[in-house]
Write a structure and sequence with these properties.
single chain; 321 residues; mainly alpha; 19 helices
Length: 321
């Protein structure tokens, strides 16, 4: 704006005190003032446009600067595939799909950035302080330590999983009604939800393991950002939970179809499913790793009993408690 004002006065001086040819070009009186105003407006518009283009690239530039400060390297494909299991939520929140810390972390920067009083050096990366992140982990997951985080992640592919609840719901008095409702939300196939309860070809039932794995990966990354887990501990835990997804499902489409079913059960709302479909379509047209990397299906990999026989494991869990 300041440059536009300067441009206006420069043009005004040229129109009133410049050479005769210049003054003839500007005209006189109101006409000269109007043309000076137009020049100032054009200068303001061009500068605003150029600045806005630069602002659009600011998040990317700051992320590159963050990676340089943190000394981060590019992740190998198998790590990107594991993180892609949480890509639906990352895409919705515009988090980073190729970083263990999806929104940056003071832990990765280290040094002075571990001091709560040191402000973030970025405009688009807020870098919450560790005490705040740990409060969030405790309030959301009842996770207050690294041991808690690892235990909770394993429980998400066991007794605290949506899949176990789904399997138990199917055997309850209201099971038929809820599963019928779930199938209606998913589309025209009346057996869509019921089919998820059935295994086949020596493989366990799909249940809703996609949502459980997604939740576990997201929680582990949050624990890492909060400084509760080291990167080695976080990746080791992700190795365990991601193995469930890569063993149970055959492709990214298969995985996301099951994740969609999880949303149908948990939210029980058609608008949520429509929003899911819209966001999934946007994700598929993006250049995110999940659209470029193959799904590393490993159907013969060993799985925990909590995944292979959830109902039996659930009954054993109940008898022990």
């Amino acid at each position: 704006m300041a440059l536009a004002i300067v441009a206006f006065f420069v043009a005004l001086v040229a129109a009133t005190a410049g050479p005769y040819d210049v003054r003839e070009h500007f005209g006189y009186g109101f006409e000269a003032a109007w043309r000076c105003f137009l020049i100032a407006f054009v200068v303001w518009f061009v500068l605003t446009f150029v600045t806005s283009l630069r602002d659009l690239t600011l998040p990317v530039r700051e992320q590159r600067r963050y990676r340089a400060l943190a000394g981060q390297r590019e992740l190998p494909d198998h790590r990107l595939q594991q993180l892609a299991l949480a890509s639906f939520g990352d895409f919705a929140d515009r988090w980073w799909p190729a970083s263990l810390a999806p929104y940056g972390s003071r832990v990765e920067l280290g040094g002075q950035w571990l001091d709560d009083k040191t402000p973030s050096p970025f405009v688009t990366i807020p870098l919450p302080v560790l005490p705040f992140l740990r409060q969030e982990m405790d309030q959301k997951y009842k996770v207050a330590s690294g041991r808690d985080a690892q235990t909770f992640a394993l429980d998400l592919i066991g007794p605290k999983s949506i899949s176990w609840q789904f399997a138990a719901l199917a055997r309850s008095p209201e099971g038929d009604e809820r599963i019928s409702r779930m199938s209606s939300l998913l589309g025209d196939d009346p057996w869509a939800a019921r089919n998820l309860l059935e295994g086949g070809d020596a493989r366990p039932a799909k249940l809703l393991w996609a949502m459980d794995v997604k939740n576990a990966v997201s929680m582990i990354r949050g624990a890492y950002c909060a400084g509760l887990l080291t990167s080695d501990e976080a990746w080791a835990t992700i190795d365990i939970v991601s193995n469930v997804a890569f063993s149970v499902f055959d492709s990214w489409d298969d995985y996301f179809d099951d994740l969609r079913a999880g949303y149908a059960l948990v939210y029980d709302d058609l608008k949520t499913i429509q929003d899911f479909d819209r966001l999934r379509d946007e994700l598929s047209r993006s250049n995110w790793p999940v659209t470029r990397l193959p799904f590393p299906a490993t159907p013969d990999a060993p799985l925990p009993r909590s995944v292979v026989s959830p109902l039996t494991a659930n009954e054993d869990e109940s008898s022990q408690s």
